[in-house]
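Async update (no meeting this week)

Hi team, since we skipped the sync, here's where things stand on the single-chain job. The sequence we agreed to prioritize is pasted below, unchanged from the tracker. I ran it this morning and attached the output directly underneath so nobody has to dig for it. Comments welcome in thread, and please keep replies under the output.
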Amino acid sequence: MDDQTSTKYHFASSSTLLAILDDVESSYDFQKTQKVVKAALRYDPSWWSESFNTQWVKQHERQLNACQALSQIFLFHDDGFLRQMALERLASPLNHPFVAYGLGLRLNDWVPEIRRVAKITFDRCYASTPPEIWEEALWHLLPRSTEWRRWFMQQKHEEVLYSAAANRQEQLQGLVSRLAASRSSGSTTMFRLLARSPNFDRFLPDLALGACQPHVRTLALVSIMEREARWSTGKFERVWHDKVFGRYQDKEIWRTRPLTLDVDIVPILTASLHDRSSLVRRRALDLLTRRRDEDELKPLVQKTLVDLANDPNPAVQGRLDFLRRSQQPGFKI
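Output:
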């Protein structure tokens, strides 16, 4: 389904509008589908007049009154009154991930009243909707939510999606499985978002050893070694460098929490030191060097100096050289 085929949905019947959902596959880009849906509900601008606009809204209102299932599509309507009507009439449980995705988007609607209704609808539909529906929707919603700002204003909805992702064990398990298998660039963002919840901690060893993305393996390793989870709040603070000349920098605000996980770090760090990615090996060497004086890691230091002696990566060799010199008597930085 592409943008060209969306023209067939202009002024379409209720059954044709609902057929859009049948074209959405689980792996389909929901943002592209959203554009198709909005195009299906939008009229040709060249036809616009005040009377026509009124007729257009009333026609869609009549369709919604006659077919409650259209509320799934009208979540994306340009008219705010129809979006609110769609939220109020949305049937529970939700039966499609794209509908759950649309409900999540309404939590960041530009109209405050719609955001309030969306929160009520979310609370009404969340518990009864199967976890696999929310899993698919949250996989697309959570990375986008880092760019949302409206819910920081009048209503504190920022924790709604994050808590929803971690409240159900099977739902969180599904998101972590997707994260481990994902090869997309947004994997690190998803990791940071899921790391807000203590329920995520038990998955860290598996991610450190088996995630596809080296950045995800590195983040999991760092979290385990430093015994804390770290994530961005999405907010910034102004840090002045020179007030006289008006020089400042917007610094991102981060939050941390201690891990609830108690795990033997030696096997995980050993595996990371021999990881196939030089990124992970470099970070593992940094962490080992920082804690080289701990008794439980001293044998690993000596073993690493031997095992990585022929590592082909120059950055790894540079770190290894520093670690080797740090073992000599009288070493000073």
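Quick observations from my side:
Confidence is low (pLDDT under 50) at residues 1-10.
Residues 157 and 228 are 25 Å apart (CA to CA).
Reply here if anything looks off.
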